[in-house]
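pasting for ref. prot 1 ->
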Amino acid sequence: MKLDRLLAITMLLLSQSRVNASELSRRFEVSLRTIYRDMEAINQAGVPIVSFPGTDGGYELMPGYRIEKQMLTLEEFGSIIAALRGMRSAAGVEEIDRLLERISALAGRRPDSLPESPLDLDHSPLPRDRPRMAALHGAIREQRLVSFSYLNSQGQETERTAEPMGLFMKNAVWYLYGYCLLRSGLRVFRLSRMLRLERLERGFARRPYTLQDIERQFMDRTDFRRIEAELIFRPEVRTRVRDEFGYEPVEDLEGGFSRVAAGFSSLEKALQTVLSYGSRVEAKSPPELVERVRTELLDAARLYAGTK
């Protein structure tokens, strides 16, 4: 995986006077383009790398630069270990274990002997998503196409074949990003909406997309555009409001009512939250949320109009 490779390249730079891009490409079984991107990522992370052209060229660390153990305290090493264990709970792959061993070696201590971090980062997917996570991780590593049926937010199902590039989590939800052959472009897929996933035998060469391309594609999707909403809650749900919006501005009003200025990752997410409170909340803004709530409640009223 990329994080493991970046750390390995950095350690090679620390232990050798010069490394060659072609040698790194063969060693890690990736393209030269990938190695160039890795070097740029390491450099952007603050490790000063100098490149030398020509047949005897390659990459070196800037003279005098060294990573010392003393740059990080044992507590900081413990926090890194906690973060990596959180990744392992999500991926469940042996690469994370190897990376844990390398970080521990740099600290000079076993992982279980480092000071315990106050943070417990668990990125485990839902049980129903774990088989998809494992299959997709293998397809990404082996650069093999995947096919699946995808269910969009309107309930429409389409057959997709994609070149999987990576997995990421946002707002506690796991997503796959990759190149969709049906749409001929980079797409983001929610794991819980991927049905009948199959890893194919056909391979692919990874396209030269950067992380910035993926971020732009993700943020440009209409269902991921953040919206700000003003909500007024009745007194009987005050405790739930504090639990759910504890980090949002909550204003106490007369009579036990609460006003919340809340940010939502999408209009659909805001709508689901408002509807879950029933008549114990009033959406004040934005107008599109108020209209969606009104439409949903009118549809529900018509649905139950003939029942007692």
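and prot 2 ->
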Amino acid sequence: MASSRAEEDLGNVPEELAVEEKFHARGNQGGRGRGGGRGRGGKGGGRGGRGLDREVVISKALSKLLRHAANDAGIKLDAEGYAPLDQVMKYRPIQSLNITFSDIQHAVQDNAKQRFSMKPNPAISPPPPSSSTDPGDWVIRANQGHSIAVSAAALLKPITLSSDNIPDTVVHGTYYSFYDSILASGGLKCMSRTHIHLSTGLPEGTKTGGSGVISGMRNDAELLIYIDIRKNLADGGTNWWVSDNGVILTEGDETGVLSTKYWKKVVGRKEAECGVLWEDGIKVADLPAALKNRKPPFGKHRAQVKGKGKKGAAEAVGAMENGDALDASVNALEITDKI
């Protein structure tokens, strides 16, 4: 099933979580972790079988609820995107995983991309002690990546020309097979997400094409699109934000697009494989034909697109593009996005 590279949130696709729950159930049937010991996470050894798989499942379940499904689950997010933890733990897919308070703490504190934040419930007076393990004493949120409506001003910090938080590097990671459709749409798009996601650097091992972790970019991105954020801010008409875990976010212009004219540079993550395609807002080369049809690494969408037909497959594949999740509502022309 999933490897540790699969920890990227796959958005609001119920089938994906269902598959993971089945895998978790198998792992709990007497499964043992490495070295033969019982794993963390309740009955039957939660980490049994495949190392970090239980942690991946927990991260995905939390992401699905807090980023995409809270409204459907009847859980109200506050202005900052926080949900009562006791209600979160009663959400059926999470409850079915036998997730404990300790599991939640681990998901918040140890997640490589720091996707979640947790704090004492502000509705409780006097404030609960920091040592409390009562879920009712806490609230939790996803730091970014929402498809449900949240207040950017309450959830995120603004980036402006007058602020001191303009990053030196703003880069979006994508895949060769999506590049032509991005060009055809005029730039990067929010798609079904609230924002376009970008990072302030590259995953470790980029010079060799290796894997690594940085918030705002998939570890196995093949193509790097560098953005001239200062030029975009000077032109106006676009809001920029930074999340608590360092992801750079924008809604794009009034049409939801971050135009190609702000592309400072587009280059392959492995420069020997793909040189510079775009520089200072001007196209300088085409993507080599041999790379256009390369499938995205690790077959991310094979399970989701099977049996959906041409349009459904295009939607599922296109859903990867913008940085952090698999979102099914997409424009057919863009591989009709997030990573």
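The longest strand covers residues 263-268.
The longest helix spans residues 53-69.
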